[in-house]
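quick one, 118 residues, struct below
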Amino acid sequence: MTDGAGRISIRPMRCFPAGFWAVALAICCCLVAGCGITPDVGLAERCADIMRRADPNATIEITKREASATSLTTITATVEGVRTDVAPGGPSPLNLGVECRFDENILTGFRWTAGPAH
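---
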C-alpha cells in the first residue's frame, strides 16, 4: 500500500478477519455441543422399534409397551400392537405382540408372542 506521498507503508496483515473467527467459533461450539448426545429411549420403545423392523411391510400402531426388571442386569420388555394396514378378518394377523430380553441394555432375546411367527 502507498500513502498519499508515494511512500510504501508496511503494516501487519491479519490472516483472517475477526468475523471469520466469530463464525468459526460458533460452528465449533455447535458441533461440540451435539457430540455424543443420543436420545434417551427406554427399552420398551427399543423393543417396539425392533418389532416394527422385524415386520417392515406392516404398518403397526403400538397399543401397549412395558418393561420390567427380572434381575439386576436383565430387563424384559413386552410390546403389543395392531396392524392398521389390513382389514379385520384378513389373511394376516391383526394383533401383534413381542417380548424382548435385554441384558445390560444389549438385546439378547426376541420372540413373537402374537402375530406372524406365533
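The first helix runs from residue 18 to 34.
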